[in-house]
């Protein structure tokens, strides 16, 4: 059973490249640089990598060019595309492949140049209308995916009394964390008034509630735990991992105020044998400000409907009881189309104790939660330092 | 079947009919139209004209420059038969649409024939 997989694998290397604007570089080029750094960080050689997981916003056959470019010889390949959560979702298949002996070292990698490439976010949105049609939504011209998150926020406000101020609390907390992260792309001070005066895009969400659009690549390397002991970095052991999907389109989801994170979270916590109150630091995929509130609730950090009140009074900001999105989040750190790899990297850095000004003292248990599509795919992983192994 | 349910749905709209599916096997009403029932897996689905009454589940105003057509409403409504669908509420300012508001069938888009609009109940 899945519980037996607790702590049997670890993330032993991480790398990032092309953060912000990767002018003059292609997606696979910055991906390869992140991969090179992750493999070196793990104390391995590229020839040691015999498993790969990757996904692309634009290229459906993406694993093949990546294998080709890196010169890999892989016995395990997974290129499941679940949107932004993909690189959290890839963890469980990687665990199975490592445990079964199908492979010995898995490289999880992603790169996007959607900020500087001619194939930018607007072009992708246009192409997606024919490649990934949603004929029962597109005729009404929702901003995709923004309007679904706006509809979720509006409904959450209606059902639970969540306020515009509380969404602003999420935005401000993310910025405060970004100011403690030299890698974060938006670090300038941000006031409550500035957020309140931001341009409305799809009510109640303003431009300040939306994640950044940048270039960036990230990679991490997983091996079996016994091998991890011999490698140079402090290992981040994978204690729990689960993914759940209830649907693709916002209009087809059973609820916009409760997501499939409830299921992925329960499964990940069960596998890890820990509970929300044990978690030292949480990295929750904040493509939009409402996400943080929804996932705090669905993952059990607070009761359903209490997320808005939970984030007020600085609870998730630096100095708060539950540090959330300690890299600055998708809202203020980075968001190159799919962000799941970056929350994983941040969690590993926290467990290593390498986060400088943003370090959570004594962080031993980190939760990573990935989201994809329009609240469509939900992937939760729980990572732990060596002290959390049984 | 002559065509898939997606083509059939849009053909019906083009002919001026808004219809959805029901499942003979489990009794569920289904939107969007499918080949099998997502609740029980049965392929015994039939078409019918919904009452046209619905309640707003959520609503947003998409902000757009005036020269490009101005702000517009995007909403999710729960049909009285059960299913939820995306729509746009007409006959009211986009920001005046409220969650919980009762709405009724308004029209099928006269140019594209691919969209079904609702209006506040009792507006007609």
Describe this structure in words.
The complex is a heterodimer of chains A (390) and B (124). With 390 residues, chain A is an alpha/beta fold. Chain A has helices at 27-41, 63-70, 86-89, 91-100, 121-131, 146-160, 164-178, 192-196, 225-228, 261-272, 289-298, 307-311, 329-332, 340-352, and strands spanning 9-20, 51-54, 76-78, 105-112, 200-202, 205-206, 215-224, 236-245, 281-284, 365-372, 377-384. Chain A folds into two domains: 2-117 and 214-238, Thiolase/Chalcone synthase (Peroxisomal Thiolase, Chain A, domain 1, 3-Layer(aba) Sandwich), CATH 3.40.47; 142-211 and 241-388, Thiolase/Chalcone synthase (Peroxisomal Thiolase, Chain A, domain 1), CATH 3.40.47. Helices cover 34% and strands 18% of the residues of chain A. In chain A, α7 crosses α11 (289-298). With 124 residues, chain B is mainly beta. Helix content of chain B is 8%, strand content 35%. Chain B is built from one helix and eight strands, in the order αββββββββ. In chain B, a hairpin with a 5-residue loop joins β1 (20-23) and β2 (29-30). The A-B interface holds A 135-137, 139-143, 147, 150-152, 154-155, 158, 199-204, 249-252, 256 and B 6, 10, 31-32, 57-63, 72, 74-76, 84-88, 95, 99-100, 109, 112, 114-115.
Number of strands of chain A: 11
Distance between the termini of chain A: 17 Å
CATH architecture of the largest domain in chain B: Beta Barrel
Q: Structural class of the helix and strand makeup of chain B? A: mainly beta
CATH topology of the largest domain in chain B: OB fold (Dihydrolipoamide Acetyltransferase, E2P)
Uncertain runs of chain B = none
Task: Provide the helix percentage of chain A.
Answer: 25-40%
Content-based structural category of chain A: alpha/beta
Strand count, sense and barrel status of the largest sheet of chain A are:
9 strands, mixed
* The named CATH superfamily of the largest domain in chain A: Thiolase/Chalcone synthase
């Amino acid at each position: 059973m899945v519980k037996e997989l607790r702590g049997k694998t670890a993330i032993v290397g991480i790398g990032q490249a092309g953060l912000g604007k990767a002018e003059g570089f292609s997606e696979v080029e910055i991906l390869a640089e992140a991969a090179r750094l992750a493999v070196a960080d793990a104390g391995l050689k590229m020839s040691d990598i015999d498993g790969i997981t990757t996904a692309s916003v634009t290229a459906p056959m993406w694993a093949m060019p990546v294998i080709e470019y890196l010169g890999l010889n892989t016995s395990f390949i997974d290129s499941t595309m679940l949107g932004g959560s993909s690189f959290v979702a890839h963890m469980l298949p990687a665990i199975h492949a490592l445990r079964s002996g199908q492979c010995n070292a898995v490289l999880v990698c992603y790169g996007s140049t959607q900020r500087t490439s001619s194939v930018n976010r607007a072009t992708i949105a246009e192409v997606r209308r024919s490649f990934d049609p949603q004929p029962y939504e597109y005729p009404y011209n929702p901003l995709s995916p923004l309007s679904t998150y706006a509809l979720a926020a509006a409904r959450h406000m209606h059902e639970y009394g969540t306020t515009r101020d509380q969404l602003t609390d999420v935005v401000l907390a993310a910025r405060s964390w970004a100011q403690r992260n030299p890698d974060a792309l938006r670090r300038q001070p941000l006031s409550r008034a500035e957020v309140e005066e931001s341009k409305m895009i799809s009510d109640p969400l303003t431009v300040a509630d939306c994640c950044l659009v940048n270039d960036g690549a990230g990679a991490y390397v997983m091996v079996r735990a016994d091998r991890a002991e011999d490698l140079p970095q402090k290992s981040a052991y994978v204690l729990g991992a689960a993914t759940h999907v209830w649907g693709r389109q916002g209009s087809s989801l059973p609820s916009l105020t409760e997501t499939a994170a409830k299921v992925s979270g329960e499964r990940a916590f069960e596998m890890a044998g820990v509970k929300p109150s044990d978690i030292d630091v949480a990295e929750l995929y904040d493509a939009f400000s409402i996400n943080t509130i929804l996932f705090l609730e669905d993952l059990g950090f607070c009761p359903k409907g209490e997320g808005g009140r939970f984030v007020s009074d600085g609870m998730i900001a630096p100095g708060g009881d539950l540090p959330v999105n300690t890299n600055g989040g998708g809202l203020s750190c980075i968001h190159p189309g799919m962000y799941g790899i970056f929350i994983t990297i941040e969690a590993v850095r926290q467990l290593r104790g390498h986060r400088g000004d943003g370090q959570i003292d004594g962080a031993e248990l980190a939760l990573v939660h990935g989201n994809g599509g329009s609240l469509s795919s939900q992937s939760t992983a729980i990572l732990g330092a060596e002290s959390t192994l049984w | 079947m002559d065509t898939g349910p997606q083509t059939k749905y849009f053909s019906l709209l083009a002919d001026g009919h808004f219809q959805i599916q029901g499942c003979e096997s489990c009794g569920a009403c289904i939107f969007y139209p499918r080949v099998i029932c997502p609740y029980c897996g049965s392929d015994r689905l039939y078409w019918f004209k919904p009452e046209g009454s619905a309640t707003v589940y959520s609503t947003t105003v998409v902000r757009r420059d005036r020269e490009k057509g101005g702000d517009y409403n995007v909403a999710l409504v729960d049909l009285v038969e059960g299913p939820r669908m995306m729509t746009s509420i007409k006959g009211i300012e986009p920001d005046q649409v409220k969650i919980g508001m009762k709405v009724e069938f308004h029209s099928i888009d006269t140019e594209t024939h691919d969209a079904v609009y609702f209006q506040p109940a009792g507006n007609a």
